Amino acid sequence: MGELPTRLEVEDLQRNLQQVQDLLRRQKLVEGLAGRLAELRAKLERLHSADIASILESLPLEERLAVWGLVGAEREGEILLELSDAVRESLIASMDSQELVAATGALEADQIADLAPDLPAQVVQDVIRALPQEEREQLRAALSYREGTVGALMDFDQIIVREDATLEAATRTLRGLDELPAHTDQLFVVDREGRLRGTLPLARLIVTDLERAVGEVVLSESVTLHPEDLAEDAAKAFERYNLVSAPVADHFGRLVGRLTVNTVMDYIRQRSAEAQLAESGLREEEDIFAPVLNSFKNRWTWLAINLVTAFIASRVIGAFEGSIEKLVALAALMPIVAGIGGNSGNQTITMIVRALALGQIQASYWLKLIGKELGVATLNGVLWGTLLGVAAFLLYGNVALGGVMALAMLLTLLLAAAMGVTIPLIRARLGRDPAVGASVLITACTDSGGFFIFLGLATLFLL
Amino acid sequence: MGELPTRLEVEDLQRNLQQVQDLLRRQKLVEGLAGRLAELRAKLERLHSADIASILESLPLEERLAVWGLVGAEREGEILLELSDAVRESLIASMDSQELVAATGALEADQIADLAPDLPAQVVQDVIRALPQEEREQLRAALSYREGTVGALMDFDQIIVREDATLEAATRTLRGLDELPAHTDQLFVVDREGRLRGTLPLARLIVTDLERAVGEVVLSESVTLHPEDLAEDAAKAFERYNLVSAPVADHFGRLVGRLTVNTVMDYIRQRSAEAQLAESGLREEEDIFAPVLNSFKNRWTWLAINLVTAFIASRVIGAFEGSIEKLVALAALMPIVAGIGGNSGNQTITMIVRALALGQIQASYWLKLIGKELGVATLNGVLWGTLLGVAAFLLYGNVALGGVMALAMLLTLLLAAAMGVTIPLIRARLGRDPAVGASVLITACTDSGGFFIFLGLATLFLL
Questions:
Q1: Residue A1 — very low, low, confident or very high, per pLDDT cuts 50/70/90?
Q2: In a 3-state reduction of DSSP, which class is residue B255?
Q3: Is the pLDDT reported for residue B1 higher than 50?
Q4: I need a labelling partner for A462 at 20 to 30 A (CA). Which of A294, A399, A442, B367 fits?
């Protein structure tokens, strides 16, 4: 019985690899090394492609290429599919055209389409030329849909039965196949013109009298996707209706492919990873052992944007240098106001962005939302403002300074709340993704705003 | 043929509801109102529970309770299961014990276990008492496993066949059921003692001669989970091996339940939502229309922690007040150094935390990782440091100030890189979740550190 096979076996393999590396370094026991390599190769052969991919992800470039060299050519395509973009690129760069054509050619049309953006154009051409007619058309179709649509995610492994066939005949069709494609939980039922009529779950096929016609037991109410549907919407449908597979039909109702739950799950994982990375200003998933320059390229954009917003905040402070000169305590206290404002604004904007993504915010409740967030901000402002005001008074023995601190805290939190609701709603209204750069935008507002409010109040009341 | 049913229908429904609310407010057309309510109730009846849950999530409390009142009692349990914790609590608070017992009693044992933590203890007692013996034991079992384990996520809808039965007999068992449970892609095969021998995929059952014995065609190599396995590891197994369902067996090899892909997908979504929220210092998913006090409770912890770290940073500045008094430009420039340091440190720590979660970091490559991150930091430091140094010189006409700015930028980025790698690795070594509070910790380091480095260098070289 196979246990959860991963953790221990993978660690064992990595220990083995380490030993091989040690041997390599010492260059002493050449025969020993050959034996170890053979052992390692045999172990790799027994591992699932996804597990090998996971090992490759966790190795520095040199060791990664060594392991890659031990992988059988017939599995390379499948493993490439499981890798993150960055690591995949590092391996593709190490392969020549012939190897790439061989690795890719063994895949199915929808899988080739997934790899195509990372392959040299000539390799893609060669692969297309070598495909049988039907698969060539499937590949062309798959390549024609935009990223993030159902068309780009679907596969072509659907099993089709005609509505006028008997269940007996449908069962014979199934028996004729060596093995059913993964995630075949239902057959797709079409009419004479190839138009989708519905689905026939295997579970239903098993419990129904085989002499009946497919058309009598077809489920015509099943969820149908279109190639242009957003993958995100399809993912929600899979979650809500607990689907394992769903048919994809074009505008004429003709079945063109299917979407399966494993593809949807990969998509959800990838999207959530991207969202997390984007929040910290990383453009895409990074190979942790990437060359310094690649990492730099992945990160510089947001650092540059941050530089600009920090510079603006600095100029706001610059405008009040006269005040700071007279009361230097302001310099020490101002980052507290801006910092708490930023933290609180990020809380609000994260919640609103999430609610927008889930489709939970109706235009009619906009004012209600702002009202609620301003309420929370007032509560926070009075509490933390008072606390900080007292702390400022105790530190500097200046009552007015404490008062300014408390008032500035309250006003900055109100600003953070208002902006935290307004920025994502406006961006959504303009058709932008409200998640992108949300944190940078709100922090820019609360930094410059917080400095301005605190130093402005101080200049008004203290000097 | 059912299209993706959600968006338009849901909006239509919400428009309807708005009209009902308008009517309610005007209190004019009482007969009209009754008709509208009946219409709305009929529409709700046609919607999937998950869609009703989505509508409830997007309504303010008053309207939410109005719609909840229109939902048939027999569906309340299912809908409660689909809601986020916060919204679920708001509805449970509106129901009396009798309603809760009725709503919960209609569910299956694993579903009751999911709701139990949110229900009054008395209600749970009453529900348990009313259950048949077998389900009562299942519920007790489900409640006994910690959150985040397979045991807490599994259900009890497995269909079991004996290995010595024929496929013919297995098929008869299936025919005897009204309907197969969702996600039944395989049957679970046990021996006379109830020990799991493997699985029998429906697809295999269909294509195999019915006179053969189950034991001859059983897949004994299938992935098996244990109730104590971490849900996260199980989720990885589902993704890697493209599973639809997996058997859960205890330490004696006895089948105790099964895990299905829809549960895993929900779990992944929830975890990724929590991670995103935690990064902004929200303890849990928030009802966007929650009372101000509830939202405050959800957010105050991290604001308080942030307050402490901001206060420490402020005291670092306070120690250099003498220097700022002499050269007030320092006050305007210091937030830039700390800000860019924080942003860059967050990039590093996000990447490391993610790689740790994916199991990609081996202890042996620790130095290699630090080396790489220090390399990226040096590149960034030289580039942005020079840029900011020149800007500082142009603004204040002070070459030495520009030099200090550039050097402080470089050193702060190196600090951020070193801390960004070290903090999560140490926390992981200590057995803590490296993701929790990562952003707050690194920002605390870069703020205090950045201020100290910049003001310290300025005091050394400029005054």
A1: very low
A2: strand
A3: no
A4: A442
DSSP three-state, residue A185: coil
Assigned token pair, A124: 């893609």
Q: What is the per-residue pLDDT across B290-347, written as a single tens digit (0 to 9) for each?
A: 888 888 988 888 899 999 999 999 999 999 999 999 999 999 999 999 999 999 999 9
In a domain, B255, yes or no: yes
Q: Which residues of B touch A303 (CB under 8 A)?
A: 340, 343-344, 347, 380, 384
Per the listing, tokens 């960055």 go with A86
pLDDT in tens, A176-199: 887 788 888 999 999 998 899 999
The number of distinct structural domains making up chain B is 3
Q: Is residue A176 part of a domain?
A: yes
Query: To the nearest 10°, the Cα dihedral for B413, B419, B420, B421?
Result: 120
3-class SS of residue B225: strand
User: What does the alpha-carbon distance between residue B55 and residue A36 come to, in Å, rounded to a whole number?
Assistant: 60
Minimal CA separation from B387 to chain A, in Å: 10
Which chain B residues have a beta carbon less than 8 Å from that of A446?
Answer: none
Residue A287 lies in a domain: no
Q: What tokens were used for A42?
A: 């045999």
* A329 burial via Cβ count (<10 Å: 0-12, 13-18, 19+): buried
CA–CA separation, B182 and A242 (whole Å): 8
Does residue A320 share a domain with residue A255?
no
Is B299 in contact with A331 (Cβ distance < 8 A)? no
B403 found inside a domain: yes
Dihedrals phi, psi of B160, to nearest 5 degrees: -110, 135
B458/B463 Cα distance (integer angstroms) = 7
Same domain for B304 and B264? no
* Prediction ipTM score: 0.83
Question: What gap in Å lies between CA A326 and CA A303, rounded to an integer?
Answer: 33
- Tell me the torsion sign for CA atoms B81, B87, B90, B94: negative
- Partnered with residue B186 across adjacent β-strands are B201
Half-sphere exposure of B70 (CA within 13 A, CB side): 23
Structure tokens at B248: 């859960």
Please report where in the chains the tokens 């509508």 appear, as a residue: B55
CB pair distance less than 8 Å for A282 and B347: yes
The DSSP bridge partners found for residue B255 are B249
- CA of B129 vs chain A CAs: smallest distance (Å): 30
pLDDT of residue B326: 94
Shortest alpha-carbon distance between residue A461 and chain B (Å):
20
What SS3 class is residue A274?
Answer: helix
The pLDDT value given to residue B225:
95
Asked whether the beta carbons of A293 and A276 are under 8 A apart, the reply is no
- For position A427, which CATH number holds? 1.10.357.20
How far apart CA B218 and CA B205 sit, in angstroms, is: 10
Domain residues for the domain of A361 are 292-462
Decide if B181 contacts B281 (C-beta within 8 A): no
Question: Is pLDDT above 60 for B390?
Answer: yes
Q: Of the candidates A14, A196, A203, which has its C-beta nearest B184's C-beta? A: A203
Residue of A214, A204, A201 lying closest to A244 (CA atoms): A201
Do B316 and B413 sit in the same domain of this protein?
yes
Q: Which member of A309, A336, A384 has the closest CB to residue B314?
A: A336
Burial pattern A4-40, b for ≥16 Cβ within 10 A else e, equals bbbeebbeebbebbeebbebeeeeeeeeebeebbeeb
A208 and A271 in a single domain? The answer is yes
Q: Are residues A226 and A176 in the same domain?
A: yes
Main-chain phi, psi angles of A172, to 5 degrees:
-60, -40
Q: What is the DSSP string of A155-172?
A: BS---EEETTSBHHHHHH
| Domain end point (choices A94, A121, A151) | A94
**Per the structure block, which two tokens stand in for A275?**
């969202």
Domain boundary among the residues B94, B119, B152 is at: B94
Does residue B378 share a domain with residue B248? no
A317 in contact with B, Cβ within 8 Å = yes
